[in-house]
Design brief:
Layout lengths: L12 E5 L6 E2 L2 E2 L3 H15 L3 E5 L16 H11 L4 E2 L6 H8 L6 E3 L7 H4 L3 H12 L4 E4 L10 H5 L6 E3 L1 H14 L6 E5 L8 H7 L5 E4 L4 H7 L14 H14 L2 E3 L3 E5 L8 E5 L8 E5 L1 H12 L3 E5 L12 H12 L3 E4 L2 H9 L9 E2 L3 H9 L4 H7 L3
Length: 397
């Protein structure tokens, strides 16, 4: 896969696909981590005299313009981080985009409006997607793929455009791939994976694949209750995917057969209802009252998980241990994060909610070996899938 140094960018229009899919409260960006992660590649291109045309998506506007998903607030924040004015095009490939790109001088930066305002970006129809890709590619002479959070999508800006232009991977994508290879090809052991988040169904493939590779698998978050139910325990009103119980029993059997230490919570914070101020009790994970719901792992589980992480040499963590957005139910997630910070292992935070939790809880990002910008992409890579965006970057243009 070629990098930026393999492209002659001076005086040339370079289309850079980045991941700017940040959470917004109205027009306020509540976590700018992905914007900050995109800055090094954009800055490197600008400093080498490229005319940088940035494109990205935000949210799910379903193929039509929606002011709630405009990238305008992102343009303002990107300008601050780059220390230079970023021109903002009010469309993706229309007159505003063409004008903004034409006005760029060497080292200038423009940001196109949300790619997903165009139906061709996500289209399942190859011809429709290719037609949009052609219009997008016509804005530039070179392409750089640096939106790791989108490389698992067969979208026009990720998959089709690199086929039309000389291309390279940005620094962020190259760094992510290097980290993921370290996790998959010959990880230093013990290799421990911590999975949380809401749904088992989101992680079926990755659990199946990891059971063939890891030494320990720690399960927390909402998905833990389906595992507990699969063992025959009452989980009350906790999050439960009843349709996944047979699949999870299969995972438990496979782990036992392979000698993988699959670790479930031993106690939980059982709340009266789902709310930041809900009353709760600490109860055994095998004795959750029928009228309660688990919203976080309990203190004994936090200690257990920390112990299971203490001697690890490689750790991958994806998914919070509880409802970390509520202060009362954030301590399980904090405990796992702090155990990783204390660890001497190669530690990878697998993007998404885990990365957001690290920042929300005020933990030092430099305490981890790597914080991924792509939760879904990271999981699909660990699942062993071919990621369309990476495959496109590996091809010769």
């Amino acid at each position: 896969m070629r990098g930026l140094d393999d492209l002659d960018v001076k005086g040339r229009r370079v289309l850079v696909r980045v991941d700017l899919n940040v959470p917004l409260d109205g027009e306020t960006i509540t976590d700018d981590g992905r914007i900050r992660a995109s800055v090094p590649t954009i800055k490197a291109l600008a400093e080498r005299g490229a005319r940088v045309v940035v494109c990205a998506h935000l949210g799910r506007p379903k193929g039509k313009p929606n002011p709630a998903f405009s990238l305008r607030p992102v343009a303002a924040r990107l300008s601050e981080l780059l220390g230079t004015e970023v021109a903002f095009a009010t469309d993706v490939v229309g007159p505003s985009a063409q004008q903004a790109v034409a006005a760029l001088g060497d080292g200038g930066v423009a940001l196109l409006e949300n790619l997903r305002f165009e139906p061709g970006e996500e289209s399942k129809d190859d011809d429709e997607r290719a037609a949009f890709a052609g219009r997008l590619a016509s804005l530039a002479e070179l392409y750089v793929g640096d939106g790791f959070g989108a490389v698992h999508r067969r979208h026009a800006s990720v998959y089709d455009v690199p086929k039309l232009l000389p291309h390279a991977a940005g620094g962020l994508v190259l760094a992510e791939v290097q980290v993921l290879k370290k996790l998959t090809e010959n990880p230093e052991r013990p290799y421990v994976v911590v999975l949380g988040g809401a749904k088992v169904s989101d992680k079926l493939g990755v659990i199946a694949n990891l059971l063939t590779k890891v030494d320990r698998l720690l399960i927390g978050g909402g998905m833990a209750y389906t595992f507990l139910a699969a063992q025959g325990h009452e989980v009350g009103g906790s999050l439960l995917q009843a349709d996944q119980l047979d699949q999870v029993r299969g995972f438990l059997n496979e782990a036992a057969k392979r000698g993988v230490d699959l670790v479930l919570p031993v106690d939980v914070l059982a709340a009266t209802h789902f709310a930041a101020d809900a009353a709760y009790d600490v109860v055994d994970a095998t004795a959750i009252p029928a009228d309660r719901q688990g919203l976080d792992i309990g203190p004994r589980t936090r200690e257990l998980f920390a112990t299971k992480l203490a001697d690890a040499r490689t750790v991958f963590w994806n998914g919070p241990m509880g409802v970390f957005e509520f202060e009362a139910f954030a301590e399980g997630t904090r405990a796992v994060a702090e155990a990783l910070i204390r660890s001497e292992a190669f530690t990878v935070v697998g993007g998404g909610d885990s990365a957001a939790a690290v920042r929300q809880l005020g933990l030092p990002e430099e305490g981890f070996s790597h914080i991924s910008t792509g939760g879904g992409a990271s999981l699909e890579y660990l699942e062993g899938k071919t990621l369309p965006g990476l495959a496109a970057l590996e091809e010769e243009a």
